Amino acid sequence: MASSSLTLPSHSLPSLLPTQTPRHPFSHYLPILSNSSQSKFYGLKLSYSSSLSIPSSSVKGSIFAKVNKGKTPPPFTLKDQDGKNVSLSKFKGKPLVLYFYPADETPGCTKQACAFRDSYEKFKKAGAQVVGISGDDPSSHKAFAKKYRLPFTLLSDEGNKVRKEWGVPGDLFGTLPGRETYVFDKNGVVQLIYNNQFQPEKHVDETLKLLQSL
């Protein structure tokens, strides 16, 4: 029986396929960056390339939370959007919803802030206060609050000192600040810790659910 063989053209098969520039493994989540531009998420300088450089220290410090349910967190004093000093102890006596978010004016953070705004009357009815914290400075918070008519306090954790002290875990191997919400009872004890980076509006649903049971 005569054997048959297939002869390919001299150009190889891969050369017939369209070539594509490899995508960044996390490009779906990261903002579009020009060469060595400033990331709005964390203030990190990222160079656009096909590989992600991860500082060895960022993975270590972002795995185990230091603030746990049933505990009282470390105290802090931070500036609000008006530049006034605000201490955590100020909110004692009423339930408190305190949420850490990556940065002002990013899409997810804007959705989350507006979701808290739209449900603010429900929080007031539950007797709870709402406070947002990010690493942005007070002037950024002031502009953000004014633009979206936010009726609650925004605190400036410049240098992410409180975030680190509380052990708020980061996402994307520590390159993106975590989106984490804490609910405190009137005695300042943590009753809920909710973490969800990519569904920011769910933070409102989960916190209201818990507040109704306090």
Structure, explained:
It is a single chain. With 214 residues, the chain is α+β, with helices and mostly antiparallel strands. The protein has a domain at 77-212: Glutaredoxin. 23% of the residues lie in helices and 17% in strands. The protein is built from 6 helices and 9 strands; from the N terminus they run ββαβββααβαβαββα. It has helices at 56-60, 107-118, 120-125, 138-147, 161-166, 202-211, and strands spanning 37-38, 45-46, 77-80, 85-87, 96-100, 129-134, 153-156, 180-184, 190-195. It has a 7-stranded mixed beta sheet. The chain has a two-stranded antiparallel sheet with strand order 1-2. Strand 8 (180-184) and strand 9 (190-195) form a beta hairpin. The longest helix is centred in the middle third of the chain and has 12 residues, at 107-118. Mean pLDDT is 79; it is low at 10-64. Keywords: Antioxidant, Chloroplast, Disulfide bond, Oxidoreductase, Peroxidase, Plastid, Redox-active center, Thylakoid, Transit peptide. GO terms for molecular function: thioredoxin peroxidase activity. This is Peroxiredoxin Q, chloroplastic. Residues 67-214 form the Thioredoxin domain. Belongs to the peroxiredoxin family. BCP/PrxQ subfamily.
Major sheet attributes: 7 strands, mixed
Distance between the termini: 84 Å
CATH superfamily of the domain at 77-212: Glutaredoxin
CATH class of the domain at 77-212: Alpha Beta
DSSP helical segment count: 6
Q: Main sheet: which strands, in order across?
A: 4-3-7-6-5-8-9
Q: What is the rounded Rg?
A: 23 Å
Low-pLDDT segments: 10-64
Based on CA inertia axes, which overall geometry fits?
Answer: globular
Q: What is the subunit arrangement here?
A: single chain
Mean pLDDT, to the nearest integer, reads 79
Measured by DSSP, the beta-strand proportion falls in: 15-25%
| CATH-derived architecture of the domain at 77-212 | 3-Layer(aba) Sandwich
**Which H/E pattern describes the elements?**
EEHEEEHHEHEHEEH
Helix content: 10-25%
DSSP strand count? 9
CATH level-3 fold name of the domain at 77-212: Glutaredoxin
| Derived structural class | alpha+beta
Protein name: Peroxiredoxin Q, chloroplastic
EC number: 1.11.1.24
InterPro entries: AhpC/TSA, Peroxiredoxin_BCP/PrxQ, Thioredoxin-like_sf, Thioredoxin_domain
Catalytic activity: a hydroperoxide + [thioredoxin]-dithiol = an alcohol + [thioredoxin]-disulfide + H2O
